[in-house]
Amino acid sequence: MNSTATIAFLGTGSMAGAILTGLLNSGADASAITATTRTEASAERLRNTSPGVNAVSIAQDPAANRRAAAKADVVVIGVEPGQAPALLDEIAGSLRPGTLILSIVSGLTLADLEGHIPAGVSLIRAMPNTPARVGAGMTGLAMEEGTPHDALQTAVGLFETSGTVLVIPESQMDALSAVSGSGPAYFFYFVEQFTEAAERLGFSHEAARTLVETTFTGSARLLAETGSEPGSLRAAVTSPGGTTEQALAVLGRKQYEEGLKEALDAAMAHAARQR
Ligand SMILES: NC(=O)c1ccc[n+]([C@@H]2O[C@H](COP(=O)([O-])OP(=O)(O)OC[C@H]3O[C@@H](n4cnc5c(N)ncnc54)[C@H](OP(=O)(O)O)[C@@H]3O)[C@@H](O)[C@H]2O)c1
Q: How far is CA 204 from CA 199, 210, 212, 231, in A?
């Protein structure tokens, strides 16, 4: 990532805010970043959490998006899918040739967005996830053939400040969104359910959280740091005829695997319906 690039985050909520935090934690120059929001309360929150960033709400300055876009080398579009085409139309006349637009909007394709982008401006679609906030994000990138190589390098550089990047064909974007974009929610849901199950065994909420969260973060580290297959790490906990085997058999009977497949299919189908 070119350290002198000027960046505009247009629509800085939970996802764009997480990327912004990852970027700042990597040592990026906060004074080169503008972040816009709809309400003044959100802009005020950003000023507190991201000191040095120029956070502006369109409630205070209705031209904030256009102003930020006009001086940006990179524009990150972080609004909801229904608002993205209108936002792009709003800033189109302000963008300079050579600007890179990074859309993190789920569901909307490059083709959906291209008609809203002026000639000479590059567009890359990105699907990040919220662990970006702690530098452990997973971002998929897709672009049309013919996108300048330096635009891709800039996008990779930006998202690598908050984690891992995978460049994929756009046809896989909905699938990636269902797996890693939404994935943190599946994990947190599982942690919530698992913590409640531990409380039902008699642990206080605090003790249950410690047990569950330490077990999950420890297991994630074991997986990442050993590079072992999850199946072999699972086998190492599962003595034949032991207690773990009993619990896994119940998860299998409750059609855990089938439920997970159906959940991902539902997420993908919804991404397609948003177009
Ligand atoms: N959440 C995720 O895990 C995730 C993952 C991948 C991709 N995405 C994509 O990221 C996008 C945002 O999702 P999110 O979860 O971050 O939603 P969010 O928290 O609601 O963020 C949307 C932000 O846009 C702001 N906004 C709305 N209209 C605006 C406008 N006209 N100009 C400037 N700012 C405006 C809102 O401001 P206020 O706060 O003042 O209302 C808010 O800060 C969506 O397109 C989603 O598909 C999300």
A: 6, 10, 12, 31
